[in-house]
Structures are given as structure tokens and as C-alpha cells.
Amino acid sequence: MVMVSVLRAPGCENIDEKWFAPMYWGEKAVPVSGGGRGSAWFVRSPNGPLVLRHYRRGGQAALISVRRYFYAGYDNARSFAEFRLLNELHDKGLPVPKPVAALVTRHGILFYEAAILIERIEGALPLQEHPKLSEKDLWCRVGQAIARFHCAGLDHVDLNCDNILVRDDQVFLIDFDRCKLHTEATFFNSWRASNLKRLRRSVEKRCSQIPEARLNTLWDGLIAGYQQAINPGQLRNPQG
After folding, report:
1. Distance CA 69, CA 55 (A)
2. Where does 125-229 sit in CATH, by number?
3. Is 158 a catalytic residue?
4. Which of 16, 91, 137, 158 is catalytic?
């Protein structure tokens, strides 16, 4: 037995489950290159330019199933959770794409598949593809943007170069699958350091064309921007 549920943003009542199938769009769906697991497409839709992403398992879990997850209620479905989180982040004024619709397809009582449609940030490039990649000012702005999210309590569990988009002077974060919004951030939360360590590993891999010494200088710029943007009034010291 297959059951389909679609969560829609206001004004998107025209969206149904067909919108989540790349074949439905034909030439209007173009695979997204780089990052992910070949499970995202740029879509030209009547609602404007969108990104369609199917949820895929990686690592050892993919040996069991690439597409299906154990069902534990709609509130825990990954597409619905990311849809709600994006709404919260957008309401906080953070630079994220707007969620458009999310799909959960249940297969019996044990499994489900998921997909999401989000606004495409036109003109934005992944960090490692930006023409000013070797300029310290760009890295400082990236650090400032990450600090804004951390001050809001956002734990981005997959913070990497592909999930940082830059358009002009704006820096956006994307792909919030499994991410968490903590109710109170503190200076001593290990997740903040974990996010930055993960990004550092991604930088070393995705920006390897930059000489090591220069890359270290650019990373120092990111950390400087991050530290400048941290608001002590928002990040409370639990020992203070």
C-alpha cells in the first residue's frame, strides 16, 4: 500500500506529487552537478525556478536501501522536518532558500521515501566555484554568515563548500537535512566546533587548487569574520 502526502507553502496549492518526479519536467529539469548523490535537479516550473531534491542514503545504510527510510511518523519524516526548519530559519531572517513543498511517500507501515522542492537562488555559486575564491574578503563574509546561523542556534551537520552559496555580496546556506535548531546556543556547544571542523575538511578537499599557505590565510579570514560576528548577548555562557 502506497500513501502520498504533500506539504505545501502558502500559494503553492497547485503542486502535486507529479512535481517531485524529474521525468515529469522533461527538459525543464537539469541535474545539479557537484555535491550530493546525483539526486537533485534544477527545475523551471510555473512557480518559478526551483530545486528538486530526492533524499538518498549514504554509507553503510545505502547497502540496505538507497531511497527508503524507516517510517516513524510524519513529524520525523526528513523532508517534512527540513521544510519546517527552513520556514523557521527564513522567519528569523537568515539567508536560506524558501521551502516550496515537501513529499512523503509511504510504502506500507515500515518505510517511506522523501523529496523536497525549494526556491532556487539564481545567480549563486558554490563557494569553491566563486571567481573571488582566493580573496580574503569573501572568506570573511562566509565566516560572518556562519556565525549568524550559530547565534540563532542552527547546527548544520553537513556544512561543506557545496552547501555554501555566494551571490554578489550575499552568502547563503543550503541543505538542512538532519540539521537541528537549538533553543539556546552557548559558547561551549561542541556542535559549533564540529560544524567548522567539517567545513575545514571540505575546504581542503574542494579548494585544493589553492596553495596550502594561501588556503590557511583564507581560512584565518573565515575564522576572523566568524569571531567578529559572534554576538555574546545571543551566545550565553552557562558558567557566567
Report:
1. 9
2. 1.10.510.10
3. yes
4. 158
